[in-house]
Amino acid sequence: MLTGLLNLLHSFFSHPALLIVLFVIFILLNILDGHSTWMVIKPNHFRRERNPVARWIFRKLGIPRGIVIFKVVLLAILAVAFAIYARHETFLPSVILLVANLVFLLVVIHNYRIHRRIRQPKLPDPEEKS
Hints:
The chain has 130 residues and is an all-alpha fold. It has 5 helices and no strands.
């Protein structure tokens, strides 16, 4: 029974169409990550960016140009790597993309939550005396 389940999962994750769908989702999540990052660090709050490489690029190239260039270069490198590897085997790239998509989904949700928290007006403290 366990062997049958593992074979089913392997055949599912080895399907080339799944790899394409997962990569499209990866691209969409990266676009949302770029947008949510821009929302959090604009106009020049670079210290909010946790990735030191991205933060350095954003400082050098500015926002949003740095975000766009960083994402395009990253996605291009990954697309080539996945295309080369997927010629031989699609199971592992599909699993990697599934995990990466889950991580990026959490990052995007986190970024938008931070943006919402940053942009909320500060309420006066009822303990303070005017």
